[in-house]
Amino acid sequence: MQFGRVSLDEWRLSGAMPPQRRYYLLQGPNYEEIIRQIADTIQVVDYRRERCCDNHDYFRLHATLRCLRSVYIDLFHSSSAGYRAQYYIAPAMGETANRYAVNCIGPRVYDFAKLHPKRTCPVSWIRATVEDEDAKVWIHQGQWLRAPLPADRLLSVERWQADEASDKATRKRARWSQLTPASEDRIDLKGGFVTLDGRSLKTLKPSRSININQHGFT
């Protein structure tokens, strides 16, 4: 499987970033290696069933996992070969990269659920929601997003900033796209919404890939 890397001219990291970190975000591991390392070093922090707000017959898995080496979450989110970079290259590339990550990380949740079962989340149902086409991974949106620091605003991608003066939602995504949180060590896996017997609701966010491609955030 061939994923890409965005050029240094387009993926501009601030000179205020420490040189070693800047180097590995621009020239470090490729996407497959990033995801393999995350999958090999994550531990499930929590998993639960979430009900769909728009249709109460459908539910999804929401699992939060902690990576023992936070550098790989940094690479996942902010590297020129990371998750958002794949969407930047093309929405279809991003969707392929997302599915690759879901397929690598999902089994860690299955294994954990077998050892720590929940009545509300049987493993067969977890598989159905994770294998659903709408399943996704994303960096955990912790304190770095709720109270962003200027020191974390170190990425400038021209396309993502082009519409910064547009509507409120677009402005937020443009600002958030600049954030490169080095200390976040968690990643979230959210399944697609399915019934308790595994029937899919299909996508609720058809514009997600375009949002990340155009604005760097969703």
Estimate nothing, just give the exact number of structural domains: 1
* Cα shape: globular
pLDDT averaged residue by residue: 94
Estimated helix fraction? 40-55%
Report the C-alpha radius of gyration, rounded. 17 Å
The H-and-E topology, N to C, reads as EHHEEHHHHEHEHHEH
What is the subunit organization of this protein? single chain
Percentage of residues in strands? 5-15%
Largest sheet: 4 strands, antiparallel
Describe the structure.
This protein is an alpha+beta fold and 218 residues long. It has one domain (12-215). Helices cover 44% and strands 15% of the residues. The protein contains ten helices and six strands, in the order E-H-H-E-E-H-H-H-H-E-H-E-H-H-E-H. It has helices at 19-27, 31-41, 71-78, 83-89, 91-115, 123-131, 143-146, 158-161, 168-177, 208-215, and strands at 12-13, 42-51, 59-67, 136-139, 155-156, 186-190. Strands 2-3-6-4 form a four-stranded antiparallel sheet. It has a two-stranded antiparallel sheet with strand order 1-5. A hairpin with a 7-residue loop joins strand 2 and strand 3. Helix 2 packs parallel to helix 5 (91-115), helix 4 crosses helix 10 and helix 5 crosses helix 10. The longest helix has 25 residues, at 91-115. The chain is globular, with a radius of gyration of 17 Å. The two termini are 25 Å apart.
